[in-house]
Amino acid sequence: MQNHEAIAEYFNAKGVSVIFLFRRNLLRRRISILANAYDQSAKPLNGKHKSHVHSPDEAKILASYKPKINTTLLIPELKQADNMVKQALEYFNSTRHIVLYYEDIIKNHTVLNDVQDFLRIPRMELKSRQVKIHKGPLHEQVENWGDIQKVLNGTPYEHFLHEDYKVS
Fold first, then answer.
1. b/e map of 71-90 (b: 16 or more CB within 10 Å)?
2. CA distance 142 to 77
3. Mean pLDDT by 10-residue block, N- to C-terminus, for the chain (168 residues)?
4. Cα dist. 147→64, 75, 151 in Å?
5. pLDDT on residue 49
6. Is residue 62 exposed (0-12), middle (13-18) or buried (19+ Cβ within 10 Å)?
7. Terminal-to-terminal C-alpha distance of the chain
8. Are 115 and 104 contacting, i.e. CB atoms less than 8 angstroms apart?
């Protein structure tokens, strides 16, 4: 990230609170990025790109695309994503921040109370009209699951194959 020192300095000077939202499962993150890129170019929903949808029908259309992951690049991409998270936390460790994981929000809606407390706002029930697009198991989300398993087995990233939406 460019200019992270100046950004952190600005955040601290202006009292900006930072919310980091990460995914625990970087393989699912990769699949989501590829599916979103496909939607940007193909625009299967009436010629419009939508990274978030509000109806089950739209979610079903978007979820029908199953990317084929380039397994030659998969481990370097997962390493890069992991390093990006570590770097962001390092760069902004001096700021007032909270770290959230998408999987935790999905599994435990009380995490949103923590966010409201962090923001120092009154707690209220939060609702979203968004419909989850890729809600099935990972092996149903990609075209080449067997190849992905072969590449990730025996690596530090193997747990992404098995720990889908596990809250720790």
1. eeebeebbeebeeebeebee
2. 16
3. 94 97 94 82 68 79 87 97 96 97 88 96 90 84 95 96 62
4. 20, 12, 6
5. 67
6. buried
7. 28
8. no
